Amino acid sequence: MSDPTAPAPAVSPPPPAPAASPGPVSSGPVSSGPVPSGPASAAAAATVPATLPAEATNAVLILGAASDIGAAIARAHAAEGRPLILLARQPARLEREAADLRLRHGVAVQLLPLDVLDLAAHAPLLDSLPVLPATVISVVGLLGEQPRSAADPAEAERVMRTNYLAPALFLGEVANRMEARGSGTIIGISSVAGDRGRASNYVYGSAKAGFTAFLSGLRNRLAGKGVHVVTVKPGFVDTQMTAGMNLPKPLTAQPEEVAKAVLAAEARGRDVIYVRPVWRVIMSIIRGIPEPVFKRRNL
Amino acid sequence: MKLSGWGRYPRVDCARAVMRDAEGARATVLGQESLIARGNGRSYGDASLNARCTLSTLRSDRLLAFDPASGRVTCEAGLLLSELLAFSVPRGWFAPVTPGTRFVTIGGMVAADVHGKNHHLAGTFGNHVESLLLLTADGAVRRCARDENADLLRATIGGMGLTGVILEVTFCLIPVETGAIRQETLRAGSFDEIMALCEESEGWTYTVAWIDCLARGKRLGRSLLYRGEHATRAEAPDATLAPPGRKLRNVPVDFPRIALNPWSMRAFNALYYGRGRPGTALVDYVTYFYPLDAVGEWNRIYGRGGFTQYQCVIPKAASRAGITAVLEKVSAAGMGSFLAVLKLFGAEGEGLLSFPTEGYTLTLDFPVDTATLNLLLELDAIVADHGGRLYLAKDSRTGARMMRRGYPRLDEFLALRERYDPHRRFESLQSQRLDL
Ligand SMILES: Cc1cc2nc3c(=O)[nH]c(=O)nc-3n(C[C@H](O)[C@H](O)[C@H](O)COP(=O)(O)OP(=O)(O)OC[C@H]3O[C@@H](n4cnc5c(N)ncnc54)[C@H](O)[C@@H]3O)c2cc1C
Ligand SMILES: NC(=O)c1ccc[n+]([C@@H]2O[C@H](COP(=O)([O-])OP(=O)(O)OC[C@H]3O[C@@H](n4cnc5c(N)ncnc54)[C@H](OP(=O)(O)O)[C@@H]3O)[C@@H](O)[C@H]2O)c1
Questions:
Q1: Is B64 in Cβ contact with A96 (below 8 Å)?
Q2: What was the pLDDT predicted at A28?
Q3: Which numbered atom of ligand 2 lies nearest the CA of A117?
Q4: Are residues B270 and B368 in the same domain?
Q5: Name one Pfam family in it (chain B) (predicted).
């Protein structure tokens, strides 16, 4: 278990689909129609509570839960019996995932909408939760396209805000609440791209650098206050964000590996982790290259 | 990215797309002129390969509904059987049909219409499918069941992904009292003996035989028969339903070809036969059904060139003559196989391209090289002459003529394909090779 102070997992009633239900399969016929938009049969498993009970003190909140990495982290936590609050811009897209989590692991899963760029929504959302989660994880990010970000300030701003400003402010709000409570874990998914600015992705990288520095400062501030902060630098990960890129296999993690590393870091109180250890080496070499040499390389 | 089937032959650079939900899959299907779905790539050959677009289903793996009273399950097609069993066995439910590895997707089990050691009683996996959702070439999602789009269901079961992308499957699990299997091992000294044993074991739920394919002459067909039943609580009071915890060990590197030669194979086969102790034992379901799963990436023992599995079935009346002829040809060529498996199938199912039909099925492994490919052409002739056919999920090399000779319902399949996918959006390297 990742949070030793937490009480026994608040297990919600076992999965539904009682014998009397009219057959757990597809609601509504889909024959030869167009693709069901909120796909067909998700409704079936949805009788485990869709909100968290207030005594669920070991809950995990994931910001960006619809990403491949976010979904993998949600699954890994559910497998440990921890209830979940999943945030996404369109939570309806998470209905099936939530059905699966409730069914397989019998945990409560609550879905809530949040556009993290809507800064004014952060505090009200946190205050509306049935319980301040034990663990809060930000997975949000936006790679964008570097040439576009270089040419269009509005696009660069969106990338900067999504990777730095918005998640940092959100976690800042969380930190204040956790500090007051005297316990909690905050995890930010940053990136190795923040370790050194490179021609190929410096708008994204600089925002991640800011995020990394913010997490580092937060960790410093909260050390000794019962709140632990983890910075995750995944390296390449095989996700939607990197679809179509030709990533070198030995350097590329699967989302499930990221999730495993995140849970391990949480349990062991690690500060900064690289998912595949080789990335620590690569980045220390890249950071060590003198600027006059670095600037002539196309990295 | 370079993709291959489990045999690692052929290996092809394929553009990969990932299915996360139905809308995404639909956009991919409508946006591509040529594509094929791919589950966990456990078919041996080129059935799940398309250089222009190979659509991975592994990220659509949600378990959507489970009825603890009837064992009815609805899941997305990319769910792995291993994950399903991890969920269901502790609740007292097992798969109605399972192949010899649990690292397959439910969609792949439908598309290849897989069979297990209980085929003579339970039929194929498709037999247990109540309904499925199929995304067809026009972008529509069709519910296929025995009372709705029944023709499309028959074409999709065993249809190797050529009718569309299976999105969801509903089927019933079978109840079990423990996660253990009561296994009985018997020895047979000849082909006639093993056939007799198979036939008198038809009352057993699970039967399968391992043949020493290097034995010749009078010993030809010497084998071990394994038969099994799900153990009851009374038989296995100590057996739990919990999955046995075991770490996978990977084959670390590609074996050099030299490691596999007629002598090492002969030694392996002789040893295996000698070690198979007749008698009864209780084994956990993983050991019983999935012995090879304990070694991850075991396909690498065949080296870089890859290997192919040759699985044929020959109708019962001709089985004895056909299988002996195949074994004699293999033995004469000195090309033993690590794995030689014999099983008696029950009646044919409804899938138009479904492989099993009543008779004996023989499975052999070979490293891929010219000698093998030539030998397999000779085996094809023997199989076809005895009225038999080859399993598409294992095939990477046969030809369109062999396909046509073995599958009498091929034209019915092609007519349906023409109706639902006139532009042949769904195609694999295999379907191109076999004119499907
Ligand atoms: C060790 C081992 C033992 C085996 N033992 C057996 C056995 O005992 N009995 C048996 O029958 N088979 C056996 N097989 C073969 C295996 O069960 C089948 O090849 C199965 O189809 C593999 O599933 P997959 O998810 O890996 O599919 P893939 O190999 O990825 O694909 C197989 C076919 O299914 C299609 N497909 C996959 N998913 C979908 C989808 N969602 N929609 C439409 N089409 C789809 C693909 O296009 C392809 O044509 C064995 C394989 C191995 C490696
Ligand atoms: N893939 C890699 O190689 C890699 C490497 C290093 C670090 N990372 C980091 O890992 C994280 C996850 O990335 P991924 O690869 O899984 O890619 P992804 O699928 O693109 O994930 C991005 C996530 O950010 C969310 N998001 C973006 N803008 C948002 C907004 N305004 N409000 C709310 N949510 C917003 C998205 O949510 P919606 O579902 O609402 O769109 C999505 O869940 C990111 O922080 C990324 O920078 C990835």
A1: yes
A2: 33
A3: 31
A4: yes
A5: ALO
Tell me whether residue B235 is in a domain.
Answer: yes
* The pLDDT of residue A153: 97
Cα–Cα distance, B97 to B351 (Å, whole number):
15
Which ligand neighbours the alpha carbon of A140 most closely?
2
Stretches where chain A sits below pLDDT 50 are 1-46
Flag whether B197 is in a domain. Answer: yes
Does any CB of chain B come closer than 8 Å to the CB of residue A36? Answer: yes
pTM of the model: 0.92
Which one of A30, A35, A37 makes the best mutation probe of the B interface by having the most chain B beta carbons within 10 Å?
Answer: A35
Q: pLDDT confidence of B221, banded at 50, 70, 90? A: confident
A166's tokens: 């918005």
Residue B264 pLDDT level (bands cut at 50, 70, 90): low
Asked if the structure places residue B165 within a domain, the reply is yes
The number of C-beta contacts closer than 8 angstroms across A and B is 102
- B403 SS3 class: helix
What is the atom index within ligand 2 of the atom nearest the CA of A192? 6
- Whole-number Cα distances in Å, B201 to B114, B207, B236: 21, 7, 22
Dump strand ranges (E) for A152-297: 184-189, 227-233, 236-237, 252-253, 272-274
**Domain locations in chain A as residue ranges:** 50-294
Say how far apart CA A215 and CA B75 lie, in whole Å. Answer: 39
Residue range of the domain that includes B127? 56-175+409-433
Average pLDDT of the residues in B120-138 = 98
Same domain, B157 and B272: no
Say whether both B298 and B385 belong to one domain.
Answer: yes
The answer to whether the Cβ–Cβ distance between A25 and B74 falls below 8 Å is: yes
Nearest-CA residue for atom 53 of ligand 1:
B42
Residue B360, C-beta contacts closer than 8 angstroms, at least 6 positions apart? B195, B198, B313, B314, B316, B319, B322, B323, B342, B343, B344, B345
**CA–CA dist B82, B71 (Å, integer):** 17
Q: Six-digit token pair at A291?
A: 């600027």
Nearest-CA residue of chain B relative to A249? Answer: B1
Residue B293: pLDDT band with limits 50, 70, 90: confident
Annotated active-site residue A164? The verdict is no
The domain tally of chain B equals 2
Looking at the structure, tell me whether residues B268 and B317 fall in a common domain.
yes
Task: Name the minimum distance, in Å, from the CA of A95 to any CA of chain B.
Answer: 10
B188 and B305 within one domain: yes
Per-residue pLDDT tens digits for B82-119: 999 999 999 999 999 999 999 999 999 999 999 999 99
Query: What CATH number corresponds to the domain at position B223?
Result: 3.30.70.2520
Distance CA(A130)–CA(A137), nearest Å, equals 17
CATH number of A50-294: 3.40.50.720
Q: Are both B264 and B128 inside the same structural domain?
A: no
Report, as an integer, the average pLDDT of B69-77.
Answer: 98
Distance CA B7, CA B310 (A): 11
CB-based contact (8 Å) between B163 and chain A? no
Q: How far apart are the first and last CA of chain B?
A: 25
Tell me whether A17 touches chain B (CB under 8 Å): yes
